[in-house]
Amino acid sequence: MIHPILRMGDPRLLRVAKPVERFDTPELHALVADLFDTMHDAKGAGLAAPQIGVDLRLVIFGFAADAQRYPDDDVVPQTVLINPLIERLDATEVDDWEGCLSVPGMRGVVPRTERIRYRGFDPSGRPIDRIATGFHARVVQHECDHLDGILYPMRVRDFTRFGFTEELFPGQDIVDD
To answer: By the 8 A CB rule, do 55 and 47 touch?
Structure first.
């Protein structure tokens, strides 16, 4: 089922989400399916449960190598990540443009850690433990921020590099992430 995506200004996006306590339930599997349906419908690279009004620490992300939206980026494995923990593996930060399905029509340059380790669980409760760099690391950090009530504009440092996509990139076909 495709859900409406909450937009910046909705106070539900500012809450800290609660941990998932029960794995491998029909309700959890249905939520994951709904998140993927909603993300694919919106042509996103990731989606967090709070973005559809579900106050749980659950994110999804990923796309295949043939994804036309991200032809220059490495493959990000399709992942369901529950109760995630992120560890910075170095202090290197990289600035890059981000968008968000909850902040439609806008883009901003956001600093993110270049190399991370993320851990959590899949819907069946099996552990996930991965190292990510580059765009993969950026996507994970962006989605997990939603679980702590953080939207990417809160991380923008230079507001001369934040604005409406059509003004920043005239004539380019760029969609929200």
So the answer is: no
